User: Fold this.
Amino acid sequence: MQIFHRSSNTISKATIFAVIIVASVALWACIQLQRSPYVTYAGVARPQPVPFSHQHHVAGLGIDCRYCHTSVENSHFAGIPPTKTCMNCHSQIWVGAPLLEPVRESYRTGKSLVWNRVNDLPDFVYFDHSIHISKGVGCNTCHGPVDRMPLMYNFASLQMEWCLDCHRAPDKYLRPRDQVFYMRYEQPTSAKPVEVDGTKYTDQRELGKYLIHKHNLRTPTDITSCSTCHR
Amino acid sequence: MATTQTPLETKKAPVIEPGHSFASVTDKISSIVLKRPVKAGWVFGFAVSFLILQVLLFAVGYLFIKGVGIWGINIPVGWGFAIVNFVWWIGIGHAGTLISAILALLRQSWRNSINRFAEAMTLFAVACAGMFPLLHMGRPWLGYWLFPYPNTMNYWPQFRSPLVWDVFAVSTYATTSLLFWFVGLIPDLATMRDRATNPVVRFVFGLLAMGWRGSARHWARYETAYLLLAGLATPLVLSVHTVVSFDFAISIVPGWHTTIFPPYFVAGAIYSGFAMVLVLAIPIRKYYDVSDFITERHLENSAMVMLATGLIVAYGYAFEAFMNWYSGNPYEGFLRWNRLHGPYAPWYLALLFFNIVLPQILWIRKFRTNPIWLFLISLDVLVGMWLERFIIVVVSLHRDFLTSSWGMYYPTRWDWAVFIGTLGLFSALMFLFVRLLPMISIFEIRTLLPEAEVKHK
Assistant:
């Protein structure tokens, strides 16, 4: 006797392929999800006590990164400015702006503003800003176009594959030491070469190789060893 | 595939008792599943196993809450019961693959009666084994890190580590064993479908039988597929436990760092596997009255395999001891002294007695063919092989190179709960298997009958 309808012949054959397709799509979806802003928050502005605009302060007013992030060149931590740094200007301008009331309150009471950390690496990662600055990694290489961010967001995924992308081949990103804080720096092209020590470079890889030598970078084997970042 | 019983072989028991026909074989095996009422003995046995299975779930649940600190492991003994039990269970599985794959290729027709439940035993043993490395990891929910997949760390697993080889060896083994078992079941599942009267049972068996009609084309494809799978599974019998032994042999710990490990692990695996086959076969043939299919011949053959592999294991022990001395290495020498005189010496001596001395009575035919004796010796071998892994794991680790790092390993109640729990899982699955599926291959038994032989004029 017939238990199944004759269509089950076709269905059963189709399911063989369906399993492969469904499994591959599911795997692909997991891989994509893991790298999506849903997980990494890349490009997602975080709420802050004061809607501080890097765009206005950096591009509009021309303030250098180091005016606020004072310790970036010689410490692991770039530094979050104390309220006093804000008040250097804001005791003179926008003194009555309601938006800045939390800043003034902090200044009056001495209680720090509590910013929400945006570029937050896991605690098991050792990261040092100063070494990256002194080897010629530009601010916007990792932080993105901060001078065009009305509200701060993390530009990169901050996942390990992103770190390794540079640590395995630093010559892809290095720039001359004096260009590190320049937010509109562009990698060399034949139309716009970059000059270092009297030589004009038209190719990033060549420039990178020279800078690796000049800045005494350690080898990729050294800087990709586990204990470089996981100490 | 059938062999003729020539008069010269009269001293040996037949692989199937006389008096059976195609119909009687099918009737007898299928009725165990389809017609036989659920008896009190089965219910009792299953209930006890199920209860022990709950012990496993409880112990694992508590482990997930508390972490591996509830176990007796420490530094220097970082590998405790979890690894002992892993190696023990995965070894037990090997007999099933040997019986179904190697003996199939060698055309040993006596395997036809025991391959089905031996393969089921393999699957259940691998399921028990596979659990332990995961539980031992501490963070089992990150177990998928062991597999190479395009992760956000842009890193592969450490391919130079035998622990990663193990992942591949065991997962390949589990997949192949499952496929082999299922493909071998398909013709019988179709028989069950055709004989089932209950529509639900018929539907389930029909689904599993995958449209098997028993046409000549089906059989031709089936034979090809089965042969291919047997060919695939054959190297696995050797490779899986070889890789398991690499977990130890690749390291530099005295007592682990030996080249004899792969062959002696494989032999030990088959040794304990056949012991488990006998521990299962002897009650099954009595309780389900299938001693006409699982005859004295099967018991004796299994006993002889056990004796042979046991001797290889004995050779392994002897050579281990010889190399401890011959290497001239003081740490190796200390290991030998420590095994014989250290804090675990009674267990080492028990291991030698259980694994090497006692099974020698299998040289005597009377013991080889007596089910009760065989059952007891098989239990003894299972205990002995478990002790062997305990000695290898714990005794090698507990005396580190520096005396300041010496320690002792005391299993806690949670160690025991997880181990005994897996015994419950194994037997609960076995109880379900004998009730729900034909535990003896119907169509392969039928090839043993005289009617199946090609008649020449």
In short: The CA atoms of residues 268 and 429 of chain B lie 24 Å apart. The mean pLDDT of chain B is 92. Chain B has one domain: 11-148+155-452. Chain B has 15 helices and no strands.
